[in-house]
Amino acid sequence: MKITNSIRFFLNIVIYTLIVFCLYYLYSPLNEHPNNKTGSSVQFVYQQF
Amino acid sequence: MKKCFFIYFLPLFFAITLLVIIVFKTNINSFLFQPRSANYSIDSTYHYIENFQGNQYYEEQFLLSNSNSENIFLLGSSELGVNTEATPYNFITKNFKTKLRAVGHAGNQCFSIYSQLLANENRLNNAPIVIILSPGWFISETANGTTASLFLEFNSSRFLNSIINNDSIANFKQYEIERISSFYDKIINPDLSLKILYFEKKLSESFLHKIVYFPFIKTCKTLNNVKLKLQSNNLKIKNKRHDRLPIISDSFIINWDSLFTYSKQKQIESCTNNNWFIYNEYFNNYIKGRTSTVSIVKDEINQELKDFKMLVKLLKTKKTKASFIILPINPCYYRNSNELTPLIKSLESEISLNNFSCLSFWNSDSTTFDNGILTDIMHLSSYGWYKVDKFIIETYNLAK
Amino acid sequence: MLPFSSFEFFIIMAIFITIIALSKYFLKSNYYKHLLVALNILFLAVIFPKPYHFISLILFSYFATYIISDIFKFKNKIWGILILLLPMLLVKFDIRFDFYPFKLNNILSFAGLSYASFRIIGYYMDKAPNEKMADFVSYFNFLSFTPTLLIGPIDRFGRFKTSQDIGFLSINSENFIIGWNSLVKGIAFKYIIAELIDRYWMSLYSIESKEILHLANNMYSYYFYLFFDFAGYSFMALGIGKMMGINVPINFTNPFVAVNPQDFWRRFHISLGDWLKDYFFTPLYMFLTRKKSLKKYPITRQNIALILTFLLMGCWNGFQFNYILSGFLFGLFSAVHNTYAIMCKKKGKDVFFGKMNPKIVKIISIFIMFNLVSIALYIFSGKCPL
């Protein structure tokens, strides 16, 4: 099925809203989640210094 | 270009606008991010706190007196985990009206302590604080100073915000900023308070840095204010001055000689499979007859030494009633412990130059070493702790 | 601030993309590389934590390559490789030369050193003996291109240079959309999916627990976490690169459906797999082929080369037991599959599955490969309590 521009437009609204809200929930400095820990999420990068 | 705008930017703009509306509706924010309920057990008669991580109650009590008696705060690292009857937070708290509270575990080194004290600088005046210095902090890798992860265990956003918002401590704050910047890149998802301190350091580097970092620091500060507003009032940093209570001297006679003789005898009896006075189990599991050496770090590149000097300076400036205890290391196990003597001497002289009391157990000579003072290779035995108890009781006049 | 470490990085990248896009209308196309070098230097100097260290490495590698290949003209490339790898080897082996006020190890260890070393070696290996040295600006851009600065993908100089030469021309709405979609995909992978796995799946059970179900949970969750985290990085680098006018190679294409080790390395960290194949496996295999004692054993030669290649990959992450063992396991999987594939070819039939339905064979292969990779990566993580 060919995705028309208008479908893509509404699809993007949904996807971006979802992403933006997820990012806000996970990374908002206002969110003091107990699992907001350090040293784990980019550990893989640090292994390769 | 038109396609880009309508299909990609417009939906993004819509999503961000929706988010911004929600961010500035604090009631929605409060609903999403309610302040964490206490999921830890609070013991109001606590004596030993391993760390402050996620424990705002203990943070609030740090360096405060009890309602009817003074608290002496004992700050140190791994040795505090040796929980015996003789350990000061048991011995003194049990026997005296003045209580003693200990804070710290392995790795709580000078900069971590410095930062905790700086965050509570309004409570430092006349505060009775005893700091246990471990020689292990000043050798090999640990001489690089407090690690990032340990720093975060003891210095939450609450403490760091207190440093950010206090301009009366400019030169000490500058040192804090410099040190945080040195390990900032090891921290993932840094808290806003850490970001602000790091950006402040970056801001001062050049004109170019100023242009780049100025908008970032402004954004962080705005968000930080929103965050502080969100936190309920009882969790806010209390900057008001806390008056200290006088230390009560109890009429209490302790027969130190018999305590020393008994505890020393006990310790020596627990070391039958070696003549280094290390308790049997530890010797069997970890030492197995092997010796080791300490890796000396030159003073010029010893970050821990620099942190120690700043800590002493802070204690002096803030007129604390501080005292220090310098631990020994087992000279039989560490063959070259004498090479560490110059550094320990410099610690002792720094302490005495600033008129603080000091109890130094340091002795690198295995022939004159007070055997039984350590339980393993660097932690105090009950005999050692009784000596510490005596020092604290005499220094702070706990007994008449 | 390290690349991709906080939202401020993305703001800086947005500014860089805007500058490049606007410059297209003011600058001639051959000035693209100069604009790029200015932006890369700005990033290193103002944002990156150890700017002098990285710039020193670029200078060292450029002049060392020039001296080795153009002045001394070493015939055996191994010496050149060792000289160029020296900074990284000193860090990996933790060899220290501390002389006040300098701590050599501190000077050498900085974020991105490993990936830069890979690219440096790639350039040196690709450079023909009589080929002129690359111009310094392009070389600098190749090593310091901001989106790939920290963890790749490991680009080749030739590719990068071609892309850089048509930099301004590549900046158009079509490429912008491709880049943008890739960036969004990367963000969703790394910052949402990987983070959700980390917070809510990986932390379900203690990493010390030895119960079989807990072990399985921790093993699978780590594989998914690692993929989404790392693939997320690569997609973001690709996306930002594309928007800045540089084609960054694709690094991941659904490794979960790989049917064998060879297929897996064509889908997982592709740029590393290609790098190892071209610069280590092939020369090593050629070297072993020349050995008289191994002449009669072509399969053994291939398998030795495979195992050694993956051992090197393990060692590259650090000289710790878990990295070396996981590298060895990946090598072993490849060697076993290689032997199996050759046997099938010789006998003209599948020696293991026989005449089983190919669709079922594929499903079984995917299942086996998925679990083998999960085990090897679980060991790699250092979180396996066994």
Task: Describe the structure in your own words.
The complex is a heterotrimer of chains A (49), B (400) and C (386). The model of chain A is unreliable at 33-49 (pLDDT under 50). Chain A has a domain at 1-30. Chain A has helices at 5-27, 43-47. Helices cover 57% and strands 0% of the residues of chain A. Chain B has a domain at 47-145 and 250-400: Rossmann fold (3-Layer(aba) Sandwich), CATH 3.40.50. Chain B has 15 helices and six strands. Chain B has helices at 2-23, 26-32, 56-61, 88-95, 110-119, 148-154, 157-164, 170-183, 192-203, 207-230, 256-269, 280-287, 303-317, 341-353, 382-395; strands at 48-49, 71-75, 99-103, 128-133, 321-326, 357-360. Chain B has a six-stranded parallel beta sheet, with helices on both faces. In chain B, helix 5 packs parallel to helix 13 (303-317). In chain B, 42% of the residues are buried. With 386 residues, chain C is mostly helical. Chain C has three domains: 7-154, no CATH class; 173-250; 257-381, no CATH class. Chain C has helices at 7-23, 32-47, 51-71, 77-92, 104-108, 113-126, 136-144, 157-165, 167-170, 173-201, 212-244, 261-265, 270-290, 298-316, 321-347, 358-381; strands at 98-99, 102-103. A two-stranded antiparallel ribbon of chain C has the order 1-2. In chain C, a hairpin with a 2-residue loop joins strand 1 and strand 2. The longest helix of chain C has 33 residues, at 212-244. The mean pLDDT of chain C is 90. Classes of the chains: A mainly alpha (49), B alpha/beta (400), C mainly alpha (386).
